[in-house]
Amino acid sequence: MPSLFFAVLSEAKPWIQKTKAKPVHHSGKFRIYKNDSMYIIISGVGKIAMALAVSEFAHLLPKEERDHMKVWNLGIVGSNQLNWKVGDFFWIHKVTDYATGKDYYPERMTKSVFGMETNLTTFDRPIAKIKTDNQFQVLNEKDLESVSLVDMEGVGFFEAASLYFPLENISIGKVISDHLEGNFCKPETVESILANLLEPLFLEWTNPLPWVTEDPFETRIWPEIWKEVKELRLTETMKHDLKKSLRFYFLRYPNTKIPMPNLEIVPKIKSKTEVKSFVEEWKKQLHV
Amino acid sequence: MFKSFSHIYIEETVADHFRTKEILSKFPNAIQIPIRHYKDSFNRNSQNFRIQKQSPKLVLAEKKEHFLYPGSDFSPNFSHKYFYYNTLALNCIYDCEYCYLQGMFPSANLVLFVNWEDFFTETKKFLDNHGSLYLALSYDTDLLALESFFPATKSWIQFASTEPNLTLEIRTKSTNFQSIAHLTPNPNIILAWTISPQIVIDTIEHGTPSLQARIKTIQKTIEAGWKVRVCIDPVLRIPDWKIHYQSLAELLGKELNPKGITELSVGGFRMNLDFLKQITDKRKDSSILFHPFEKKDKIVSYSKEETEEILHVIIPSFEKHFDPSQINLSYP
Ligand code: SF4
């Protein structure tokens, strides 16, 4: 089940409409939308709001679910490159926190129809190239040199997401909304920029992660066997060792039935010594 | 095995290095990402080695210290007083299920250090101070397999020709001998090939050259006058392992000139316990890793009986074709 983080509602709106996701009632501060197969989260502006939203969301899920979850941040950015157009979309392979100078590296693992990639710098305030009435932070020539795209959330998203989700599952994609002219984008403009990219991105977002595959031993074979021997009350170490031995046999002889002991005697086994020898005998059959 | 690299991370200090430029010119379509220090990317938490191995990235970096490491207890020192290894590269383009690198490194990306001259200088200093050095060159990687874009093996062979007290071991599974075939053989250099039965190559040593190709390369190397070590290491107790390793002995006896082999090195599977834990945590599809190993001093290996059985089978099979003095155990 993928999850998608936006800073503001106007960015998320086309996605919410497309997925018909409904608000989730939870005790937290951030808006979470959900349908049967996906989550959309709106954090509010700024890296701290984004980091908190990621962390709050992650705490609502068990680790197994997080491990299999694709987690994206999409949003608008300002561009320092005049030759890139409003509406151009980039995957981000490096995020810099302007305030601390720290770099982070979201690694691109899967292919995309969007072929352009660049780096992103996250600032604590809106950025402009020239002074305006809006009190944007004005960057000098030197600072601008190392800047390609600018936003206010990317770093907060990545730093928090990498604490809770496998790195390979995390992606940041940004679309250009302005060239640092010092004006706030109108919500309708933001909405339409995001809506233009929706279809191809939606396809990629809903594609399952190629490395999340079923482990039949874990999901099917072990639970079935465990059901039969649960009442032996094995110690954690014995359980772990038995599971390992069973997996060994399963991998080594994938087309053979796993040897099972006489399960009828299980209810009669009482003492620790009996349990031990029962398991040892079984393991001997598996270690061939 | 690999087609290309989609991304190349480049440390800022080596961005203008001539060797960086040479390597980059081999991958014109790769996206280049400037990076301050390779560890900023390579050592990140929560990376999954297995997933990254599906699409490994290249990292070009500068090695700033540790140009020589003392040899590990897992590796034979071949009776040399000063046994060291260096790491010109971290990780490998192949994907062997038993490879300890999966448990040792947090990332599957391939790091190449481009400042070889600093390695040469430090090695020379060591030789001046200690008089001799046995240096394993292809540790934590398969260096010869990278030769087409990272021709370090050639440079080290050339360096060794100027340092008579330096003995080099270059261990590989690759068939890239042609890339160094034009160099003059040096008796202080041992080219070592790891050999396994074809079934192991097919099912466990993913992406590596076939047995026939390796044997052919070894034979060419012998004919060219190089010292060759053949490593049957690790021996793996796969189903019907006896038959597979006995046929391997037959094949090597038939196809290689036994006199040309300096040494046959034999050893069963063994690994640092922590590495194995790391690996089995992420890789649950490899039966050889779930073997009921014996644990001793943080090392896992086959039990004493299993190890004895391995030697009992392997040694006589090889003794049919090779002189017993040629056969050595790579691990007690
Ligand atoms: S060739 Fe060696 S270094 Fe490379 S994956 Fe195989 S065991 Fe590891």
Can you put this structure into words, describing what you see?
The complex is a heterodimer of chains A (288) and B (332). In chain A, a hairpin with a 7-residue loop joins strand 2 and strand 3. In chain A, the strands form 2 sheets. Chain A has a 5-stranded mixed beta barrel with strand order 5-11-8-6-12. Chain A is of the alpha/beta class and 288 residues long. In chain A, helix 1 crosses helix 6 and helix 8 packs parallel to helix 9. Chain A is 39% helix and 20% strand. The model of chain A has no long low-confidence stretch (mean pLDDT 95). Chain A is built from 9 helices and 12 strands. By secondary structure, chain B is of the alpha/beta class. In chain B, strand 1, helix 1 and strand 2 form a beta-alpha-beta unit. The chains are: A alpha/beta (288), B alpha/beta (332). Chains A and B meet through helix 8 of A and strand 2 and helix 3 of B. The complex binds iron/sulfur cluster (SF4). The site of iron/sulfur cluster has 9 residues of chain B, from strand 7.
